[in-house]
């Protein structure tokens, strides 16, 4: 989490983006260029630090759970006309980062980008998915039926040998639109015009979907997610790509009153209860203590 926070701070707030840290190749110039956190040295240090903490018995604190209330705030902000409208492409010169130019942070994403994240948020939240699973979803994994859709994952970390059951998701009423996965998925597929290959593709300039069949990376999604949190005045530092898996587990148990065994079956987790994995998602030191548990 600390590494991701550094990458975001250097990349977005200081305008260094995600270029790996390297020495200039210009003869006579020994300056270092790029993002200092995107380097082999930093990655090795973070991995080593994590191993030492675990060996020392330190409890690993997961990313803060995203709540249905926060999803509602993000949903309504993204659906404001100035954010949701898909505008025609108009090339413009590159501008410096927001904090250096006085520009608006909201400019991080147009109508297509916000449709993409809305679909990804709800799928991850409701299906208890890790985001590397979400970003590998392809068009043929989705099928619609009257009143809902099915999602058949190509792989799951919890099902290394296959036998992955499909998810059946139903359209929710307007009062729960921020939790509905069916409508945002249909809206994203219509807006993106992606007909085959990876569903959540990289976005090119001008809020256009890249033609190459290349999925969004975890780092790119995390930057979009954190910018979306800043839109609604929420500090993004405690949140990560596990926030949806974590939050969805709490939502199903606390708000939907699902028993633990049903949650484990839905999420494809072990039902032997020989470890406390699910407890870590239900109760975490990193969560907001004011949220009901």
CATH architecture of one domain: Orthogonal Bundle
Across the major sheet, the strand order is 3-4-5
Low-confidence stretches are 93-105
Fraction in beta strands: 5-15%
Q: What is the string of SSEs from the N terminus onward?
A: HEEHHHHHHEEEHEEHHHH
CATH topology grouping of one domain: hpI Integrase, Chain A
- The average pLDDT value, as a whole number, equals 79
The largest β sheet comes out as: 3 strands, antiparallel
The tally of beta strands, per DSSP, is: 7
Coarse shape: globular
Q: Residue share in helices?
A: 40-55%
Helix/strand-derived class? Answer: mainly alpha
Quick synopsis:
The protein is mainly alpha-helical and 293 residues long. It has helices at residues 2-13, 40-55, 68-78, 81-84, 98-101, 111-127, 131-134, 182-192, 218-231, 243-255, 260-267, 277-282, and strands at residues 22-23, 32-33, 142-145, 148-151, 167-170, 203-204, 208-209. The strands form 3 sheets. The protein has a 3-stranded antiparallel β-sheet with strand order 3-4-5, with no helix packed on it. Strands 1-2 form a two-stranded antiparallel sheet. A two-stranded antiparallel sheet has the order 6-7.
